[in-house]
Amino acid sequence: MRVKVISVLEDNYMYLVIEENTKDAIAVDAAVSKRLLEIIKREGVTLKAILTTHHHLDHCRGNEELARHHPDLRVYGADKRIGALTNKVSHNEELKFGHINVRCLFTPCHTATHMCYFVWEDDCPDAPAVFSGDTLFIGGCGRFFEGTADQMYKNLMQILGTLPKETKVFCGHEHTIPNLKFALKVEPDSEAVKAKLAWAKARDDEDLPTVPSTLGEEFYYNPFMRVTEESVQKFTGKTDPVEVMDVLRTMKDNFKKPKERPPGPALVALEWGLFRP
Length: 277
Ligand SMILES: [Zn+2]
Prior knowledge:
The protein is α/β, with parallel strands linked by helices. The protein contains ten helices and 14 strands. A hairpin with a 7-residue loop joins strand 9 (115-121) and strand 10. Bound molecules: zinc ion. Zinc ion (ZN) binds next to loops.
């Protein structure tokens, strides 16, 4: 199976999971229909289904338009607020598309009905993938809009955290650099955070995505996956992992973006010019 990473909007990702033998495809978080239709055409694949992680429009705005183009299209998700929804899924429900298998993982917190999707192909040596939406990001996690720290703890440690370590993590947004800057504040001496941040900056310089990571990696640099580590507990002043999660999220919400760089000489000169009588 091949996962095509598609950058859309400000920093969102949509994905196309392609079964190479049959050229059937499943889209994940189809936010921009026009873009997806172009790619489907270019790749010569048939869109069979859409998996939607949650109802926020930057994850599902394209559903209706895609359903109009594909009358038999099935749209999966766990929330009635998701446009063109045909199949409401529940925790641990398994779906099958040819040789591609999907296990739906209920991960409420960012929204009350958020779903992650664990995907693998039969008889295929490729590592499985998890489409984690706005629950798990590379180096971070989604905001708790409709849930609690207790739920996010369960999502990250008990549901996603128990998937195979080699699982590739495809998340909903490119937030890796700001996430890792916060991670470095939490664990300033962490070589894992420093190395991943340097790598992410190099990717950014080349305008390349930082997805996927692996689940195993996340345990080394993602503070929200490290709430049982002494260093993270010390930073938050708490020891109970749910309380650590809660404090971390509040601190991340308030974490200031670094100040913009001062203007270069050209801009300063221009401003002088503007002020010249
Ligand atoms: Zn969202």
